[in-house]
Amino acid sequence: MRQSFSIALVLALFAASASAQDSRPRRFLGGPLTIEDQGSFFIGGVQKVTTFATVPAPPAPGAAPAAPAAPAPQQITIGQMYVQFQIPAKKYGVGWPVIMVHGSTHTGACLEATPDGREGWYPYFVRNGVPSYVVDQAGRGRSGFDESVIHEGEARLVGGDRSGADLIPGFGRITDNGAWTNWFGHLVPEGSTILTGRLIPHAAADDPNPRPDAYQHVAPQFPLDAVDANLVNRTGAIGPAPGGSSANYALEYYKQLVPNAEVTLPGSTCSSCDPKELSPANTWTPQNLAALVERLGGAIVVTHSQSGIMGHHMARILKERGHLDLLKGLVTLEGSCSLPNSGLTAADFDNIPYMALKGDYTATSTVCQETVDAINARRAAKQGTAKAEYLKLDDMGILGVTHMMMLDKKNLEIADVMMNWVNKNVRPRGKSSRVNSTK
Question: What is the pTM of this model?
Fold first, then answer.
């Protein structure tokens, strides 16, 4: 049965939200931005002709029963990727544009501003003279998804064909409390649910898993105090109230979380990859990223979490097209660093600077370290020129950084780490030789 709201309740919620927002004006940017261009466009995608683009209209009230008319074939476009960009009036650094890619259950919104109303990476990079491009992964957010597979599955099931169930994908997503327990803290006591337990942050007095080193008392640098008062009061909430502090279930951040609707898109195969079967996520976004790098005539790509392996698949696609030289640098933020998964080898990064980075609460990745070591081994043997590094923010004294580091209170400090690394290791646009040392 579908939940329904009264118009009065919806209007009351809207008015309360608007009033709360109006009473707390914010200035998100760190200062005025001077740009020469900005806009948005779509890249990639294919046509699909289907009879399930829409659902049949219901019969008119009182109309005599009749066999439904065969739906007419229609065309939709699927698999495209939304891109927004800003070009600063004055450019600094290496001159190459940066493409930023979000992770699972997010959209490009996580790169625009923080939940507590501070400047995000996207405008900050522009402020520092970097042409910046932010995407919504194919099948996610403004890129849209393929609803026709759901309509077709439902139609088959209504007609008694159980194979329709196989067409309806399972939508993954990170839940509000799942985001908390994965990145910000714990659900205690052990074995409890959100109805019987409490959400507590890392470094709380009753933290069940304190870090065994000097940083164990560092609290998360995520804006856990940015909450929506209406959500704290659970106005209009559906279902029972969780236990513990209601504020922990009312973060402004949770509003960013969306289903991974790319599961509605088809997957693919890759003969050089291990495994060879590629998910929809690793099929469409890598293709579109490669096309975007080509369209820009070269770019640095920054991936996060789920999109880490997508950046590697993008590199493989550029290699297959003979355009690997257009990838000027690859940054992987707490994502997969696997080369075999994406059909790559360390030799593919002989001339592409590579950086992996981790925050304070994520375990060190042996795969990322192995990839970095393999790239640098070729450099040491004079087979490559590009440098690879695995940077750990806690080793740099930047403590308490969560997985969602672009939204943390130290987000701009982390952005500086990335920009400094790029300026040191990426060949400037128009230069024929590397500017960084080979130490």
Answer: 0.90
